[in-house]
Amino acid sequence: MKFEGSYVALITPFKSNGEVDEDKVRELVNYHIENGTAGIVPCGTTGEAPTLTFAEHEKVIKIVVEEVKGRIQVIAGAGSNNTDRAVELTKYAKELGADAALSTCPYYNKPSQRGIYEHYKKIAEEAKFPVMLYNVPGRTGVNIEAETVARLAEFPEIVAIKEATGSIEQMIRIQDLCGDKIEILSGEDHLILPMLSIGAKGVVSVVANIMPKEMKELIAAFLNQEYEKAYKLHTELYDVSRNMFIEGNPVTVKTAMKILGKIDNDIVRLPLVSCEEKTVDKLTKLFKQKGII
Q1: Is residue 38 part of a domain?
Q2: Residue 167 lies in a domain
Q3: Given 134, 201, 216, 254, the catalytic residue
Q4: H helices, E strands: number in the chain
Q5: Catalytic residue among 162, 201, 216, 258
Q6: Residues near 112 by Cβ (< 8 Å), separated by ≥ 6?
């Protein structure tokens, strides 16, 4: 299975009473399909997986798979710092008909590289399902080193990595060690162009929630060797990307989506809180300057 293009790290919209808004999830899925997104990634960091109940987590994956109907890929968030829970979620994604599971490096526990290897080894061997590693040490507290990625790439189930260290050097090292055994996707929107230049095949994107067409076109332009067009799109998206983390993720992107009329509210769950008014004003001004509104 090939993982290439723009994948959206989908937000989880909530109703005014705080419940998951199923109708809005389905609406967003179709919005992304219409705009050329390669795949939906529900229940990741941007989808507020840490504050979803187990039942909600599974429900959101089920809704997305049902609504996609095989039209694009679904990479279901299935990470946990409890290895058995990660195996359970990965098996559930498989049963539902997702294409792969996004599995974050175990967070808070701060395992050794051997522990990380054994964690993913158990998922691969027990779930028997394609897994995209997710390396984001800024959130998990530990880095999946390139050598560990290379060891894991020997498992046929470990098919890709979402790389969000921000280290170009590490990404080059992964590419050198793994070759075509694993596909690299950027986990940093503002680094997409340099990552593509060293062999990445796409992105799992936050900004694609609000600019899916432009993100899709950026990846396609580079892969089609239209480098001037890719650079132009990169510069257009860069400022927006950098401003999607003013008050953290997914807080800022939800506010952006509300400003642009893509969701009805920007409700997030504690311990997250919605953006302050000054951030709303800043984003509104930016979107007007960029011609987005």
Answers
A1: yes
A2: yes
A3: 134
A4: 12, 8
A5: 162
A6: none
CA 133 to chain centre: 11
Looking at the domain assignment, is residue 283 inside a domain? no
| Backbone conformation region of residue 3, classed left if phi is above 0, alpha if psi is from -120 to 50, else beta | beta
Is 131 part of a structural domain of the chain? yes
Give the chain's end-to-end CA distance (angstroms, integer): 37
d(C-alpha 212, C-alpha 47), whole Å: 16
At 88, is the secondary structure helix, strand, or coil? helix
User: What's residue 1's pLDDT?
Assistant: 81
CATH code, 57: 3.20.20.70
DSSP 191: G
Among 115, 173, 169, 168, which residue's Cα sits nearest to residue 141?
115
Interhelix angle for 54-68 vs 83-96, to 10°? Answer: 30
Tens of pLDDT, residue by residue over 108-133, are: 999 999 999 999 999 999 999 999 99
Domain count for the chain, please give it. Answer: 1
Domain of 168, in residue numbers = 5-224
Place of tokens 């432009």: 214
The answer to whether residue 285 is catalytic is no
Q: How many angstroms from the chain centroid is the CA of residue 260?
A: 21
Buried b (16+ CB within 10 A) or exposed e, 69-98: eeebbbbbbbbbbebeebbbbbbbbbebeb
Distance of alpha carbon 166 from the chain centroid? 15
pLDDT (tens digit, 9 = 90+) per residue, 177-233? 999 999 999 999 999 999 999 999 999 999 999 999 999 999 999 999 999 999 999
Catalytic residue status for 162: yes
How do residues 265-274 score in pLDDT, each as one tens digit?
A: 999 999 999 9
Q: How far is CA 110 from CA 90, 105, 123, 132, in A?
A: 21, 9, 18, 20
